[in-house]
Specification:
homodimer, alpha/beta, Rossmann fold, Pantoate--beta-alanine Ligase, Chain: A,domain 2, 2 domains, five-stranded parallel sheet, three-stranded antiparallel sheet, 11 helices
Chain lengths: 289, 289
């Protein structure tokens, strides 16, 4: 992988990386297309990273469809595919020349305990550590992530800034099914009934957006409406519904300066997330003036 | 800095980095010369990194001699000098486009509490974090460190291996004064009496080496002799005298497989360190056979 990417670099080609855990859907395709449009050479990685899953999470059953994914990436014109094994990414002592099992972590301490990091302790340090590894192996000029994982985008941007990674982070808009459900590899876990219930995540965000468009600026009142909408779907268990600064993930009181509205909920045993970004707005009079 | 180093890279030149905290001495010069011999272009950095000093340590009074250092590096043929300010390396909120103060740390958890890391909590995470930043800014092919900081070398090698940094780590032998004292910027703190007392560190290591050459293999007996030697110098306060695996920093019982013999002690308020490496040896009969 490194040889191929260095080849591109020496030819002064711009290299884009699309890191994925496989089980590719239209959301991933949009990342690949954004990378193809912005870069000369596109690499994709497929790696279901064990260090970002909690002990009771779905690492073992996470959907894997390597051949289908490989064909899809080839069809989309991806030039390089990096699909290491767990043992290659986290080698056991015998294979190493620097000592026993990996013990190095990259941690964005200030953000790692917020939103999904609060619900999934250790998740973000697994993400930042594996993304740092991928960046060092692939050495991309730009990397493309889905805005669906908004907190992940914030954490990775922060890591890149704090550690001076020479990589541009590009966040691509959420891709949705026709009925509004955000594309996710985990949607494959849903049965027909759950699939319908899952729509409440998007619906709650649309309710908030409508209120913002009508002039509401109070994060507390907006979040209350979102949570109420979720509560109406009896079989959906809310994890969080929060309105925060999209960079710091800290709660905001007023959404006039822009905000991230993020929701996470369990539908059956499947944990789904969704979000919308509210842009910076002038005061109500100006917007309607 | 990045532009200059990318220029070298595009010209397919091998770039070496010598990271320093300034107050340069012959030990640093040996690193520069090793880099000059192995690389086409050599960059040095001078940065007294606050995040690797404890609250009661010598960050404020650490010797600084920028003009002298700059001239020395120029004389030695260093092509690139990177000397950022603290604010440039750890920007305050207003200067940043990714949010408030740096909150990202690179930590080699398994090694960070050993040897100097045990005496100086937080020290190694400060080192690994700033070295990761320097590697991302300078993007060297190889980086040169002094074996005097043996635990630091082990921690950095481990970080580079675990996180797949595309950087070769070269450790250069300790450079000593004529009487055996290991070169260190902190030697400048010593008065005449302390300077003489400080020789006990090297003397203790030489006693251990002599015993090993005479066939002793027990780390416990070797360390006892080293500690006894230190105890003989009444005004020197031992921090640690340990015999460990040079990669894992774990104690060894027997030095036949090679070992790092490392000592740290306070001479007055000045903390000094020194070490020797014992090579892999065959059993006693073979060596003398």
């Amino acid at each position: 992988m490194r040889e191929a990417s260095r080849g591109a670099r020496h030819a002064s080609q711009r290299l884009g990386l699309v890191p994925t855990m496989g089980a590719l859907h239209e959301g991933h395709v949009s990342l690949v297309r954004a990378a193809k449009a912005a870069c000369d050479v596109v690499a994709a990685s497929i790696f279901v990273n064990p260090t970002q899953f909690g002990p009771n999470e779905d690492f073992a059953k996470y959907p894997r469809s390597f051949e289908r994914d490989r064909e899809l990436l080839e069809r989309e014109g991806v030039e390089l595919l990096f699909a290491p094994t767990v043992e290659e990414m986290y080698p056991a002592p015998a294979d190493r020349n620097v000592g026993p099992p990996p013990a190095t972590w990259v941690t964005v301490e200030e953000l790692s305990g917020k939103l999904d990091g609060r619900s999934r302790p250790g998740h973000f340090r697994g993400v930042t550590t594996v993304v740092a590894k991928l960046f060092h192996i692939v050495e991309p000029d730009a990397a493309f992530f889905g805005q669906k994982d908004a907190a992940q985008v914030a954490v990775i941007r922060r890591m890149v800034g704090d550690l001076n990674f020479p990589v541009e982070i590009v966040a691509c808009p959420i891709v949705r099914e026709a009925d509004g459900l955000a594309m996710s590899s985990r949607n494959a876990y849903l049965d027909g009934v759950q699939r319908k219930q899952a729509l409440v995540l998007h619906r709650s965000l649309m309710s908030v957006r409508k209120m913002v468009e009508a002039g509401e600026r109070s994060a507390a009142r907006l979040a209350a409406v979102g949570r109420e909408e979720l509560a109406g779907e009896k079989l959906v268990r809310l994890d969080y519904f929060e309105i925060v600064n999209a960079e710091t993930l800290d709660p905001v009181e007023d959404v006039s300066g822009g905000a991230l509205v993020a929701v996470a909920a369990f539908v059956g045993t499947t944990r789904l997330i969704d979000n919308i970004l509210i842009g910076k707005t002038n005061n109500q009079e100006d917007r309607h003036g």
